[in-house]
Amino acid sequence: MYFDYSDRSKVALTLLISLVFISDLYFAVTKSLFTIPMLWSDEISVYQKRFENVRGMLPRHGLVGYIAESDEIFENDSAMKAFYLTQYTLSPTVLSPISLTNGTEAPLIIGNFHEAGSRAARLESKALAPLMDFGNGVMLLRYRNRDQTP
Amino acid sequence: MFLLSFILPLLIAFLFIRLILPPQETPQRFSFVTGFLSIGIGLGVSSCISFFLLLTNDLVRERLFIIDLVLAATLGALLLYRSKANKEIETVRHVSATFPTSGLQKTFAIIFVSALALALVIFVILSWRNPHGAWDAFAIWNLRARFLFRGETHWPDAFSEHMTWSHVDYPLFIPTNVARGWAIVGNDTVVVPILLALLFTVGIVGLIVSSLSILRGKSQGYLAGSVLLGTPFYLSLGASQLADVPLAFFLLSSVALISFRRTLSSARVFFLAGLSAALSGWVKNEGLLFLASMFLSLAVRAIISKDRGPHLKEISYFSLGALPVIMVIVFFKTQFSPGNDIFANQHFHLILSKLTDLSRHYVVLEGFQRSVRDFGGWPFSMPIMLLFYLLVVGLHTEVDFKQDFIFPLTLLILMLSGYYFIYIITPQDLHWHIRSSLNRLLLQLWPATLFFYFSIVRTPEKSLAPNELQLQPLHR
Questions:
Q1: Distance (Å, whole) CA A5 – CA A8
Q2: What ipTM is given for this predicted complex?
Q3: Which residues in chain A have their CB less than 8 angstroms from residue B231's CB?
Q4: How far, in Å, CA of A36 to CA of B127, rounded?
Q5: What mean pLDDT is reported for chain A?
Q6: Which of A132, B135, B175, B446 is 20 to 30 A (C-alpha) from B300?
Q7: Cβ distance of B132 and A42 shorter than 8 Å
């Protein structure tokens, strides 16, 4: 059988179109896309629920401090993500890590802790006192002595 | 309400494009192209309007509706007036190249619709799983939108010195469109940014299919659309609510509009191309590189041409179209945006030392070669498959090297060179910067590259039955 230009083109076209469908199906299977989770069970929606009761306690606008386990918020991926998600949830209130502002600007501070053990020591080291505990490591804090910077 | 937040801007853009390019001056089926172009131009213009309403603290539903309705009514009246005025004038409907209907077109239509259905299922599932989008969506774009919507008169807090980690120099196309949608709906529902993402993801496909259907026949259009839909990374990036897919839309629309120059009687199409190119700069900073690259590419095209007059006229139209949005961008950059993190804290000697550091060039080149092969998320490289396809079927017989190659190649080289040198001088960790962004930069160019590719490769009709089917395209 003579494999002419038309036949070669058919083969090339078939391969091209096959790759189109194989690519999408391969992607769907490897990412387990056809396993459908519950709506709002994604990481961000769940994370936002941590702060459900917090927004009403904060000023609608202005600056609020932020503290977590470590001062190295932007040097650690998980700490950075926690900070970004907290800002996303609490916007338009502006959050700023107290390690950057030195506590000179924000009278209120959001505590976002994921480990119970280090919390008390951390607050002590920053001269912070709890105003409200929302559970799950989320707290509203203030400086013990407003004139005293950590 | 969700759809209403987008329908009026699209209608306004449709009427505007018809005013610039009247039906009697455009090829048959150009209404489809107009419809898909309206997505970008309509939302681009509404974004600029929303930004100015923010300046007067007036981003409210009633104000938005009034402005949209006034614009739509004005454009509609102008169109009506012109159609009545032109009734007495004998116009010859432009006859573009026509392609005889073939059974192949139905086959490719079925293939395309199947690919589209699969892609839409994937998009919906990805959005269901991540309704707030990917990292940059909640850290930059939708975060900014929340400030613009929730902040009321304090919306400028979005650009506070405490927010610089959120790239506050990035333009406001997506945040203003999302905030606008929320203002109309009345709450910051995830449906608005998801719909916006869907519009652009599908809009690019529609634009590539409708444009190539006119320029190269329906089969070629459907095939190009299918290949784009068969790019998994395109679908996941589309659903991620980032700005890369909207940017890709404006890159494609500018290139596609210029490609219609040979089939349209008017250089006014360059006005729309300039508007699209400038809007890309309102989407992301990479759009500014694209805008500059377009100007340079058009200049090169004019220089190498024997008759420069028409090309200079085209560049004038392009500049005119780009100017209003450029002014918006300049205003934003000077009044709200701090310096860009790539160029801030960099001085001449530091940049020079990076440019002359060969190890950086090696890392970047190695990153490029790896990403070009792998960026799409295919199990087997689609660029290699497309190269194979081109070698087998060959080029379209009417390819003109100057018209069809010089301009897009110049543009592609300038864009890739721009990306290359940004990586060379970046103050970020080089490996991290390449790993976190190069695949998205390449995806921005992918739809326009596919458009260019399928403009020059032989069509299925000609490659599958070159002897049986004698095609005699009609030329103007």
A1: 5
A2: 0.91
A3: 23
A4: 11
A5: 88
A6: B446
A7: yes
